[in-house]
Amino acid sequence: MIMLAAGPVETFDEKDLVARLVNDNKALWNKLLQNNFCQKQMKTQSATDQKTLDGFKWYMRQDFLYITKLGIYEANRGLKATNTQDFETSMDRVGKCAKYAKDHLKMCTTTPPNGLGIEESTILATPETKALQQYVALLLDAADKENWVMSAVAMIPCIQSYYLIAEDLYRNSVHKDTPWHKLWTEENVKYKSSTERQKSGYPRCAIRQKINQLPSSIL
């Protein structure tokens, strides 16, 4: 991967379509990677900072909803498959989304330091933010209108940015003993292989279209 948290470099493998996309959308991509909450709070604040902890808990509640809705996206993608292998791949991902959602709920409700200690009734009653609604709508629209291969493009900004933000925080956070470092950064930095799998196979123009459709409120 040619990306660093500071931004894209000019030289990259022309076969790396994700890198080409990023290079074509530097300003937008950097805005996503350098968002204020990650850079000014998660990276610098200690575990005793209540504002950052509250913000992280709210984010994790939204992430629970997002993960759960990914199962719907994958199921809808499966209906666009033209062969058994692709259909089974989507159905396997539905199962993974369900497990991930259950694990995420457990982590949010588990008593610290292994979780966030949020009441399960609070998690399950979480209202969706406008940004979440917009991004989920983008995913579902792709699953509905695109073929099985192209509908996967909508997930690229999420997978790539999660890993790169986590990598930056893992390397550069002032405090490594915070709940957000343990429960988010250390978990998401494990997914380098997922970003590598996206390096090829997607038409450049289609990826650019999807990243340009990201709601400005999440940036």
UniProtKB/TrEMBL annotation:
SUPFAM superfamilies: Heme oxygenase-like (SSF48613)
Pfam families per record: TENA_THI-4
InterPro entries listed in its UniProt record: Haem_Oase-like_multi-hlx, Thiaminase-2/PQQC
Domain Thiaminase-2/PQQC, residue spans: 53-187
Biological processes, Gene Ontology terms: thiamine metabolic process
Protein name, as recorded: Thiaminase-2/PQQC domain-containing protein
Species this protein is from: Thelephora terrestris
